[in-house]
Input
Amino acid sequence: MTTLTNRPNTALLVVDVQNAVVEEAHERDAVVANIGSLVEQARREGAPVVWVQHSDEELVRGSDGWRIVPELTPADAEPLVEKHYGDSFEDTSLETVLSGLGVGRLVVVGSETDACVRSTLHGAFVRGYDVTLVSDAHTTFDKRAWGAPPPDQVIAHTNLYWSRQAAPGRTAGTVPAKAVDFGPTAAVA
Output
């Protein structure tokens, strides 16, 4: 269980599901639908939903590409954390937000698998969080032109290695969207 004290809650962390980030993403519509279902489940179960939104010189704050996809709408009371680096914790208010919500376990979804999602998984884990990656609710675009494997292989590899993460006092793992449990002591595969 988490190494963070007095943090019994689980939150859904939605990373960078923005127009320009997912417009050419692998299985975009299915992934966004899975994320939407998880957002609704978290809300029904009273689990916090925390949104992360990236901006930089290519993804300009306030632009259409920067906006969260139209299929997903953060509720007014749900925290939205703006970031400028891959790791959603780096130079942001995310740790303060999660601490205030009593969160010690994260269920992570979003884009891009091989960039901000991966960085955030590791960033959370080294900070003491239990971290579950939803295996069918993260995506990336085709980066074969730069020497990367095809997107389905990037996603499969990330699911494989995250399912085998281990560290003292923390849990990690992957589950499909239909098996997500927002309880504080949910087991991971």
Notes: The helical segments are 19-22, 28-45, 94-100, 113-126, 151-162. Confidence is low (pLDDT under 50) at residues 185-189. The radius of gyration is 15 Å.
